[in-house]
Automatic annotation (TrEMBL):
<dbReference type="InterPro" id="IPR045789">
    <property type="entry name" value="Insc_C"/>
</dbReference>
<dbReference type="GO" id="GO:0045176">
    <property type="term" value="P:apical protein localization"/>
</dbReference>
<dbReference type="GO" id="GO:0008093">
    <property type="term" value="F:cytoskeletal anchor activity"/>
</dbReference>
<dbReference type="InterPro" id="IPR031938">
    <property type="entry name" value="INSC_LBD"/>
</dbReference>
<dbReference type="InterPro" id="IPR011989">
    <property type="entry name" value="ARM-like"/>
</dbReference>
<protein>
    <submittedName>
        <fullName>INSC spindle orientation adaptor protein</fullName>
    </submittedName>
</protein>
<dbReference type="InterPro" id="IPR016024">
    <property type="entry name" value="ARM-type_fold"/>
</dbReference>
<feature type="transmembrane region" description="Helical">
    <location>
        <begin position="12"/>
        <end position="33"/>
    </location>
</feature>
<keyword id="KW-0472">Membrane</keyword>
<dbReference type="InterPro" id="IPR000225">
    <property type="entry name" value="Armadillo"/>
</dbReference>
<keyword id="KW-1133">Transmembrane helix</keyword>
<dbReference type="GO" id="GO:0009786">
    <property type="term" value="P:regulation of asymmetric cell division"/>
</dbReference>
<dbReference type="Pfam" id="PF16748">
    <property type="entry name" value="INSC_LBD"/>
</dbReference>
<dbReference type="GO" id="GO:0008356">
    <property type="term" value="P:asymmetric cell division"/>
</dbReference>
<dbReference type="GO" id="GO:0045179">
    <property type="term" value="C:apical cortex"/>
</dbReference>
<feature type="domain" description="Protein inscuteable homologue C-terminal">
    <location>
        <begin position="102"/>
        <end position="554"/>
    </location>
</feature>
<dbReference type="InterPro" id="IPR039921">
    <property type="entry name" value="Inscuteable"/>
</dbReference>
Length: 554
């Protein structure tokens, strides 16, 4: 599970679970800049439409006026005092957000130009080209207002982009002056080529700007001895990392992981550990961040923090979030974490203790999410958990609604139970901790809000609780307890009623498997029709029968 998503749903819970024609790939290339990872939609689109319109309105300008002024100040003389006031009105973080919003508008406009061009709507193409020209000039002017250290390479790119935008505008204007279809057809390929070039220059400029800003922030973190400056730089870096995987790659490539772990190894910055670890969890969602973490012995540092009792619970929770991020089963590049195995016992022990002593649902969520991911990462973790009486601790936590208060937390607990249930010794622990009752309750998990992320978490809880029951029911004592708690009728209801399982096929398969296991142990618990349809046929036939129940031919 990814730690970024963890922080966003229950504050962290939603992350539990990137026009046609040859130019379209280039145009869409830089649309990735403002998007988030753990699974993920565009950051700016996740707001109310009216609020979004109000924000965009501030960035919109009158195209005709902008063409005349070309983003130049009205006053001929430099007003240094006014420039200072303007640049001090916003923090670096605010300025970067403004830049990214402007970049998002430009990339959207370029995509729309490509779409209109396909339909030969030349009037719209020209007006939108003029608007892009204005936004590009405004973006460059705004950036140069709050930065004082632009490189020569950046100035050259700015000039190339402005010149190409002007050329693009002039080109589309000439297209308006002819109605000859053959001429327009020949000019269209040139317009396509120019649009592609504008998109390339724009993408390169944004990449360079973001790289320079990341370098500036990391320079502040590495060189400043001031607590305030370091805290401000880390905060800005975290905001930058929230804009998506592309930004995280830039930060990692510029040495962000190295700089952040350096902070985590200095006692004078102890008060900044939670914020620093939260930023690390964001940056380590990409492969570049993981490689850097391995190079600087980041696992050892995290193990030291988790096992140091002098650290605050907040620090331990954020360290757990980093562990959850780097061991996420959704990532394909965790196999190189060889040092994790060397420190796994210490880390698992500390995480179990954190679950046991958690003072809030959020802390428990982060610690249990890390444990759940580790059980996927290496099977030895399940044996360690069994030795630590983790089963008893987790089952006890589930009875405390203050700690296990969301489907996301229950998802983590049942994931651990499902992975531990492959061990034969697990059955007795489940019986002693009244775990069968808990699994039965989880089969009734339903979303109260209708939120898609929460509904998906509820599906996972139902599926994994059924899987756990199926695995544990090889033990006659567990199977007998499940039958006495009326698990069989509930499993039949989940199989036959698509709405009960939120139309989830994965829940259906898990319930059919659990039902068949229990039917072997207690065949008298099923009616003949249920046995003939849900148990006797091949699993795939029963699956098709149950899925056809939700079809409507009206």
């Amino acid at each position: 599970m990814e730690a970024q998503e963890l922080k966003k749903a229950s504050t962290w819970s939603s992350l539990l679970y990137g026009a046609g024609g040859g130019y379209s790939k280039v145009v869409l290339l830089f649309l990735i800049l403002p998007s988030p990872s753990l699974p993920s939609s565009l950051h700016l689109i996740q707001v109310d439409s009216v609020q979004r319109w109000m924000e965009d309105l501030k960035l919109m300008t009158d195209c005709e006026c902008m063409c005349i002024l070309q983003s130049k100040p009205i006053s001929i003389e430099k007003d240094e005092q006014n420039e200072l006031i303007l640049s001090s009105q916003h923090s670096t973080c605010d300025n970067l957000q403004l830049l990214l919003k402007r970049a998002w508008i430009i990339s959207t406009e370029l995509t729309r130009i490509a779409q209109k061009l396909e339909k030969n709507r030349w009037q719209r193409v020209h007006s939108m080209t003029v608007r892009v020209n204005c936004h590009v000039r405004s973006m460059i002017n705004e950036y140069n207002t709050f930065t004082r250290s632009s490189s020569e390479e950046m100035h050259q790119l700015e000039k190339l982009l402005i010149d190409k935008c002007s050329e693009f505008t002039a080109f589309t204007e000439r297209c308006l002056q002819t109605e000859d279809k053959e001429i327009l057809k020949s000019m269209k390929s040139c317009v396509n080529e120019t649009l592609t070039t504008v998109a390339q220059y724009f993408g390169q400029l944004i990449e360079l700007v973001l790289t320079q800003e990341a370098q500036n922030l990391l320079r502040q973190i590495e060189l400043s001895g001031s607590l305030y400056i370091t805290e401000s730089a880390i905060s800005s870096l975290f905001s930058l990392a929230q804009e998506g995987a592309h930004l995280c790659r830039i930060i990692a490539k510029e040495g962000g992981v190295v700089a952040l772990f350096k902070i985590c190894r200095q006692d004078c910055f102890r008060c900044l550990y939670p914020q620093t670890l939260r930023t690390l969890a964001s940056v380590c969602c990409v492969e570049e961040g993981m490689h850097q973490l391995e190079k600087v012995d980041g696992i050892l540092c995290l193990a030291d923090i988790l096992t140091d009792t002098s650290h605050s619970e907040a620090t331990h929770a954020e360290a757990a979030a980093v562990i959850a991020q780097i061991t996420s089963p959704h990532l394909t590049f965790t196999q190189h974490l060889s040092s994790f195995l060397e420190n796994m016992e210490e880390i698992v022990t500390a995480l179990v203790k954190l679950c046991q002593e958690a003072s809030s649902g959020e802390v428990f969520l982060l610690a249990s999410a890390a444990l759940a991911n580790i059980t996927f990462f290496d099977t030895m973790a399940c044996e360690i958990l069994l030795q630590l009486n983790a089963m008893k601790i987790l089952l006890a936590a589930c009875s405390d609604k203050r700690i296990v208060d969301t489907p996301y937390s229950r998802d983590q607990v049942v994931t651990i139970l499902a992975n531990m249930s492959v061990l034969d010794q697990c059955a007795s622990e489940i019986i002693q901790g009244n775990g069968v009752q808990l699994l039965m309750e989880m089969l009734f998990e339903k979303s109260s809000s209708g939120n898609p992320a929460e509904a998906a978490a509820c599906e996972r809880v139902q599926q994994k609780s059924a899987v756990t029951l199926a695995r544990l029911s090889r033990d006659p004592e567990v199977a007998d307890a499940a039958v006495k708690l009326s698990c069989i009728p509930r499993l039949i209801k989940l199989c036959r009623s698509p709405t009960e399982r939120n139309n989830s096929d994965s829940v259906l398969v898990a319930c059919l498997a659990a039902l068949r296991r229990l039917a072997v142990m207690s065949p008298d618990g099923l009616e003949d029709s249920d046995f003939q349809q849900l148990v006797k046929p091949r699993l795939v036939d029963s699956f098709l029968l149950c899925t056809n129940m939700e079809e409507s031919f009206v």
